[in-house]
Every structure is written in structure tokens, then in C-alpha cells.
Design a protein that fits this description.
Layout lengths: L3 E3 L7 E5 L4 E8 L4 H17 L4 E11 L1 H19 L3 E7 L5 H8 L7
Parallel strand pairs: 3-4, 4-5
Antiparallel strand pairs: 1-2, 2-3
């Protein structure tokens, strides 16, 4: 499976999705003009990955900031990850955020109760 890499910019996340290296990471700021179009290739890649996943999947989030449209898409992605786990796959989410960043804590905790 071909990896998906995107360099981060001042408005978009750095994305590293590499099945062979077992490395799945999102970092930086997410405030693209169109969050849906930015995340669509990520959703498509993950749908393909779900067909033949690794034995264990660890996804790392190191987000500095995200706007409301990114929050909606990220929440959709986290729900997709929860469904992946419920279908019997091993998955961990490592979500890094500043101690006092309430927005990051809230979105991280919404759908992820089953990942703890």
C-alpha cells in the first residue's frame, strides 16, 4: 500500500500515513479553506488500509490548533477509528495536547472513550 505524506503548512496538517513503517501521524495546525477536501484523501487511504490492516494500529495526533470545520471532520475520522476498533481490530490513539487546552481535550475525549 502506497504511503500518504503531506507536508504541513501554516493552515494544513502534516500527515504521515505509512502502513509498512506502521507510522500514522497528524501534526500541526488544521485550518484549511476546505477541510472536507483536505481530509477526503485521508479518509480514502484509511478505507483502503482497513481492508488489510496491520496487527496493531497506533495513530498519533499532535495538533496545535484546529478550526471548527476541521473539528467536524476530525470527529468524523475519530468515529471511523472507533468503528474500526469495534470491528475487532487493535488500535491505540495517542493524542498530545497542551495541559490547559480544553478544546483539544474535548474533541479527544468525545468518541474515544472506547480507546482508553
Amino acid at each position: 500500500m502506497k504511503p500518504l505524506f503531506r507536508e504541513g503548512t501554516s493552515t494544513t496538517l502534516k500527515v504521515s500515513l505509512d502502513k509498512e513503517a506502521n507510522h500514522f501521524e497528524f501534526s500541526g495546525k488544521s485550518r484549511p479553506e476546505n477541510a472536507v477536501s483536505f481530509f477526503e484523501p485521508i479518509f480514502e487511504w484509511f478505507d483502503d488500509y482497513c481492508k488489510f490492516p496491520n496487527n496493531e494500529t497506533i495513530i498519533i495526533f499532535k495538533l496545535d490548533y484546529f478550526n471548527s470545520s476541521s473539528a467536524k471532520v476530525l470527529l468524523r475520522f475519530l468515529v471511523k477509528l472507533e468503528e474500526f476498533k469495534k470491528s475487532g481490530h487493535t488500535i491505540e490513539i495517542h493524542w498530545y495536547y497542551l495541559y490547559n487546552d480544553e478544546d483539544m481535550w474535548i474533541i479527544r475525549s468525545k468518541p474515544c472513550h472506547s480507546f482508553r
